[in-house]
Amino acid sequence: VKSEGPKLVPFFKATCVYFVLWLPTSSPSWFSALIKCLPIFCLWVFLLAHGINFLVSHRSASRILAGLIFSALGDAFLIWQEQGYFIHGLLMFAITHILYSSAFGMKPLDLKAGLLMGVVSSSCYAFLYSYLSGPFTYLVAVYIALIGFMGWRAVAGVQLCTDLWTWTKLSACVGAMLFMVSDLTIALNKFCFPVPYSRFIIMATYYAAQMLIALSAVETRDEEDFRKRS
């Protein structure tokens, strides 16, 4: 973790810039889109700092980088969500969750975690259903299924009671859970009722989630270094 910390300094600075400027959402602009996306751009740099060869040779890392790219596109679209671009942002983040799920992989399967995540996802949709109308009735259902699946794959990778436990898998798990909290807050605030301090909750959990998921991409590099030292 200590070796990765310095590479994340630009991300922390960019995140501070976002919260310090706190540009109003009522007047979207390319500048506000840049400020919002800047921390995600820094996570691109964080992964690229590990080397192109590393990204090319490790599919999980390259898929997480691709997910971050689609996340930035989603962030930009959501700046103009009141102008009709909310669905575009939803689509970008749906692709992000597919890429993250692919990066986390299907082993171990852990059906218990899958069942638990299925119950949580179904409960969230059941609560939101009565507030939804038109295309959002099925779009939100598909989105919840995708982020729930992503959460399952992240949780399944954590094996605290075995020798296969790694801090990066725990990082992916916590990141996925925070991503779900962020998106659930968006849904509640947009479709159900005003959530106090919603923007702060959404962005704080979102940036933390993306950072932790980006950190999980360095797992294969850590394993290689461990084998070399052994």
From TrEMBL:
Protein name: lysoplasmalogenase
The enzyme's E.C. designation: 3.3.2.2
GO molecular function list: alkenylglycerophosphocholine hydrolase activity
This protein's UniProt keywords: Membrane, Transmembrane, Transmembrane helix
Lineage, broadest ranks: Eukaryota, Metazoa, Chordata, Craniata, Vertebrata
Any matching Pfam family: YhhN
Domain of life: Eukaryota
Similarity-based family: Belongs to the TMEM86 family.
Topological type in the membrane: Multi-pass membrane protein
Catalytic activity: a 1-O-(1Z-alkenyl)-sn-glycero-3-phosphocholine + H2O = a 2,3-saturated aldehyde + sn-glycerol 3-phosphocholine; a 1-O-(1Z-alkenyl)-sn-glycero-3-phosphoethanolamine + H2O = a 2,3-saturated aldehyde + sn-glycero-3-phosphoethanolamine
Species this chain originates from: Leiothrix lutea
EC category name: hydrolase
